[in-house]
User: What shape does this take?
Amino acid sequence: MKKRGLLHKMKMQVLVVLVLCIYMVGFQQIFFITSVNSEEVTGTEPKITITSPKSGDNSNVTNLTISGTVENISTGVPIVFYDGTEQIGTTSEVIENRWTIPVTLSEGIHTISAKTEVGGNSISSNSIDLTIDSTPPTITFVNPNNGDYLNSRNLEGTTEPSAAVKICMDCTEDAEGQVAGTWMTVTADSSGKWMYQDPQLTEGSHTVYAKATDGSGNNGNINKVTFTLDTLRPLVLPDIFPKQDMTQVSLNPTIRVKISDANALDENVIDNSINLSHNGINDEGTISYNRVTKEITFTPLNPLSPSTKYNVFISPLGIIDAAKNGAFPRFWSFTTSSITSETHQNPHGSYANNVNTCGNCHNTHAAKDPNLLSPKTSTGSGQEEILAADNYCMACHDGTVAPLPENRLNTHTHNAAVKIDGKPSGSSCASCHNPHLDWSERNPNLTQDHITYMHLPSNPVDPNKPTEEISSKEQLCESCHENDSAEKIANPAVDYRVFQYNKSSTATGIYEDYELCLRCHNGDFKKKYDKTADIASFYNNLTEEIKKQYEIINGQSSFSKREISAEEKDFSGHIIKAQDGSPLAGHIPCTECHDTHGSNNIKNLKESLGHEDVQSFNATDTDIKIVKVSIDSKEREFNILSDDKEREFCLACHNGTTAIYGVKGQKYDATLDEHKGYPNKACSYCHGRGESEVEKALSASHAPKKGLVPTP
Assistant: This one.
């Protein structure tokens, strides 16, 4: 009885201690201790883990070893391995809780797992996905194929997805097929496509080697192709016929162009190469091609119309070389003869046979002009004065007897009627053309001509004799040589010159190429006739003398082949080197921005700008701003393009896509701080030079400079 009482007493004491513990420690802490003990118990459960290979691994061998660990599994218990549901092996050798087993797997994707039994319970491991790939990857070239012509520096091909592709360009290969050189690596995408680009790859023949290593480590065999890199577009040579602006062209002409390209042309498209049109109508004809000389000829099916201007367009769609490079486009025009005679040389008739022809422009008794030109007349309605002599010109040059000057009927025309000395003339036509000249291939448009002679100092000195080069446009020879002028003019030292107005197929970019315009638009002429702008000063850094001296040192025609110097680029951003086969290596011609006879735009600006990606441009009388400038203490008003319209004009070419002579205008970068700081200013605000907005506008349009923000 005493023992039972003692036991009861002890139970009561334990119960009291437990209650005190709960009170002092808290129920949650007691529960935590209990939970920990429970986890320690569950941690003794058996477990199998595959540690190698890792899930997702690739292997290029079929015989491999799988390894892993066990926990709480007795030694000697068999572990069974499966590939999916297929048993592939068993092991009971577990050393220090680690096991390994060799297996043989086929090509493809496998799902590996392990199982065992402990106390009647099935224990499974983690599963791994394993790819067996022992096949070396193949590599192919999509572009180029062997023997191809390639017009880009991008090589493309295919191999296994995500494989590493190694490229060796123009490496050496020995007799055993070992390739030595520098290997570059690119990675194929998830579909197996790869691309390699070498910006420094030169024109000509190349051999490229390629090999691939796949994700399983298999190294493929080397593949190679030989190809020719040709990124150069075919060029239309300047030697064209009929020549640019040629007149008196036969009514049955053969249009000829020669192509320069290192490779053969695609003769399947050659029929699309030359397009002839007039007044917006295409003229049909047959095209032939001489693959030896690379000359293309176009023969009209029907005789051409007399006194008609025809336009020739050389299309890139019809001149394509073996590398699929399209030629640079070329445009020019010619005018047919007014009569069918092939020997007719004077479009204005024979003065010797019909003296009344002179009376078309001259009035012997009524004219007040020293040259007996008919006087000016006026409409009396505030419109521009009409020149009577020009009316006589237009009586024939109306498209019936003689061709109508291009754009002559447009809103704005070139109607300056001045002589070389700045005095008024009776004809704006005669300001640029000499109607008395005989037609010649050298001067088909009867452009104004003159003779020059370098007078040497006399001994003894004659104060009345000039000692510098004299032009007949400034001083007639007859003013001093009344009786012997013919003999003097025949002197070989006398140089006969035509004021040039060269364009794309003839202009080299020197001052004299545009002398027909610059003979009036210069500083000296401005002093005599202040309505004329001085544009010549933007072109005088490149002259015929400079060209001549350069070619004495570097050889004939070397001037057009030279690279533009940094000094030339600083002088004018409009000095470029043509890439389309034209001889231009200097100032861009006036005709790239201005239409000769007239335009619907102010200042005779062209309505279409560029040779490729041609842009339309429109500027009416509402697109001007009036600028007041003080000249010799007198305030004068000048009209220039508004800021918005000037930007529009400049950006028509400076957009990164429009090109002239194969040269794209530098793209306007709106992110530059200078451009962001002056978003509404005219381009000439920073790219022009001068004291006034007028001078800056002239400078920026004819010889833009590197951007310079003016000091406030």
